[in-house]
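Build the 3D complex.
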Amino acid sequence: MTTMTATRTPYDELAHISRSASLLGGTAGLLGWDQEVMMPPGGLEYRSLQLAQLARLQHQTFTDERVGDLLAECEADAGVTDDPDSATAVNVRELRRDYDRQTRLPAELVEEEAKLASLGQHIWQEARRKSDFTTFRPLLEKIVDLMRRKAECYGWPDDGEAWDALAEDYEPGCTAKQIEEVFTPLRDRLRTLLQGLMGSSTKPPNTFNELPLDLGRQRRFVRGIAEAIGFDFDRGRLDISTHPFCSGSHCNDVRLTTRFHECNVNDALGSTMHEAGHGIYEQGLLTEHVGTPMGSAVSLGIHESQSRMWENQVGRSHAFWKWAHPKLREFFGSAANGVDLETAYGGANIVTPGFIRVEADEATYNMHIMIRFELERAILRGDLEVGDIPEVWNAKYRDYLGIDVPDDARGCLQDIHWSMAAMGYFPTYTLGNLYCAQFFETAMDQIPGLEAQFERGKFGDLKQWLNENIHAHGRRYRAADLCEHVTGKPLSADPLMRHLEGKLRPLYGL
Amino acid sequence: MTTMTATRTPYDELAHISRSASLLGGTAGLLGWDQEVMMPPGGLEYRSLQLAQLARLQHQTFTDERVGDLLAECEADAGVTDDPDSATAVNVRELRRDYDRQTRLPAELVEEEAKLASLGQHIWQEARRKSDFTTFRPLLEKIVDLMRRKAECYGWPDDGEAWDALAEDYEPGCTAKQIEEVFTPLRDRLRTLLQGLMGSSTKPPNTFNELPLDLGRQRRFVRGIAEAIGFDFDRGRLDISTHPFCSGSHCNDVRLTTRFHECNVNDALGSTMHEAGHGIYEQGLLTEHVGTPMGSAVSLGIHESQSRMWENQVGRSHAFWKWAHPKLREFFGSAANGVDLETAYGGANIVTPGFIRVEADEATYNMHIMIRFELERAILRGDLEVGDIPEVWNAKYRDYLGIDVPDDARGCLQDIHWSMAAMGYFPTYTLGNLYCAQFFETAMDQIPGLEAQFERGKFGDLKQWLNENIHAHGRRYRAADLCEHVTGKPLSADPLMRHLEGKLRPLYGL
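Done.
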């Protein structure tokens, strides 16, 4: 770096450092992908050392004092920052944000967090195995204490709360108060909808979800769908892993994974379309901005809105199945004989309140999230003791989903997040569903004949709309601002509820 | 690093830096593997940036002034260096060697080399496509000039020559004079053997090399053989690439590749056993020494001796085929009907003088290498002008192999090495064959009933012998010393010639 400083502007040097740090992050991304998908078991020990080394180097690169000086120089340079929506101004603004956050945490706290998170996962696994919250409780109390101290380091505005400071890591600019305003009507309307659905004597057939289908054919089928909706296989791959994910190094090398079960092609299809949606977002970031905030995703919530777009708005629509349904015969032959269009579409949209978040359907999923959000917010505020989590958890499941949690393993011990010291993360899943529905309503308004396109297997107009309206902006707008910019309205529960009610009530004969 | 310096000995700190640099190298190794085996085409541009960044970080880590200070402190510490064969003394000796070499090259020369090598490969590819040496000549002259300057920077002893200084990068401690002493009798005896074989009216049938066999079955077959000879799939993988190679991050994560042709399972088998041999060496390095010279391979020649051990000494032996031949029926069914034991064994051992090194058989291969060695040595000495390469090349092919090179593409333009500024590299291939034959003779002496074990598919004793006598030493001995240590004799052409003559003469009815 130093040898070229003389001929570079401060902005160029800053962007160079950003790209260097991001290059290390991309290398770590590739190693993480390899670990889940390719690495033989013997590689584990040194892989954690490799990843720790890359994380350290990335942190060093980005928190160097020189970055602080460059930021100050750039901020004072009107040519760089005068137009707040310009790429240079956005990059300086966002790098300043990242730099301040990264330098605000003392090294001891970062180290303590890494240790607690590592120990936490270990103890949580044991506790879940024994289905005994009490053995996890002392460690979770330590984690909550650490989370409060971490939030103090970050700080928050007077009208905010500690939860906001933590959520900023995942959903910049988002506050618990804003979330509450959208989640409360969502919860009440969802409860009403679910009561209606569960009370109905009509429901879609489940045949499609119990159909044994050849795994090799399933693989070709879901790959074909990922390609059809616009995932670019010249700039990405699709492999298999225990838990599906989207990773990779940068917008031109995006790695997706999915998984297969002999008797549930719907699971593989949903996972593939979900991860392909994340991948299409990553591939839609502009190459010219790679390694800078302008070439990065807005937030986890917006990322999730893109995965849910293809998984739910497209992949569980009647129009999609009108096109995809004949493909079942094409790929699986007579094995798919029993599945007509309504069986396929219905099977993709069954609603069943259950205990486990990751197995939940499109409608009940959000209830799982809201319960977690309410709990972690109360804990951080001091309104709830860690020891009382199981009782409150179970009461909320009875209230929101009408089911009785049988044990901690299927209750408050099911998720890894808190054990990893990730608080403020959960709501991004439901924010994703909300943004997704609101974006999709706007796309439907702005692209004539979108459903008719789906019926013909044409998804390019929707993808291009997402590319232009969402992906190309990188981190130019905060999630809430992007939503207003794209849809003309603040985030609301209405589009998601219209989507769910409009689809599910007819399927359940209401 | 700095935070722990106070509590560490200089040796511990030095070893820590060695491991850090090696960890970065291992990450680069994984990225290189991914590039050849997994990466989508879009990833190429950023992959080169990632690799360049890792190379720069590795170089910085290892050439830091602190390393020089630590080396001096360690060298002055009798507890560390008193026993020259101890792990600590070996590590200090070898790290000193590496450090001195790495700090001896001026940055400008390293940069010039990288540029010339990159340009060289481009121009060489074009020249080979047009089969026109004259378009490559000016660049090769520049490369030779650079190689001379590089050798000057490294320096060499009074009784040596520039070639030695370059070869040191690949085969530490090896000199052109030593090579000449072994290569000259090898060349003369090989020429006599080849003339005999080519003059014979008897030769092995070629049926086995023209047999169409299902690619999926070929894949399972060669994987099974790699497993049988001792490659540990819990600490490694086998995949497919255009050019087979062995790579990975460290001894517990070794990545092999092979390739398949419908009509030549022998090629896939040979490539797989060859790369598995490299892999077994890497897996045989001791985990406790990972990231230090004691946990690293001796030289390219010794590495090649391990790949050739399994490819040639085992994989082309009658004993091996006595065990493997029935497997052809097991894996390929009636498709392997025409192949009896002698057809399989004979097909694996056909000798055909040809133009292309990488397609050469076990016997003629060494002639290709010796021709290249003689030429590059003469060029570096100034005894041969670059412009005269094609003429001398072709004359030597006529003299050593009895064939007339039809054009430059099939002549002096066939190899990439010189265009990459790799001079002093070629002989390591034949050194590998020589070391391999000499090691194997010793193993045959020391392990009773080795051939009978092969006939029963038992390869564990040979692997363990290699583990103990070669792999476990890391870089404790130079190649020549290791040879004496293991076999009790200096390197000689005799074992390789005994092996080739003993096998090939009977096959050709001599």
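The two ends of chain B are 65 Å apart (CA to CA).
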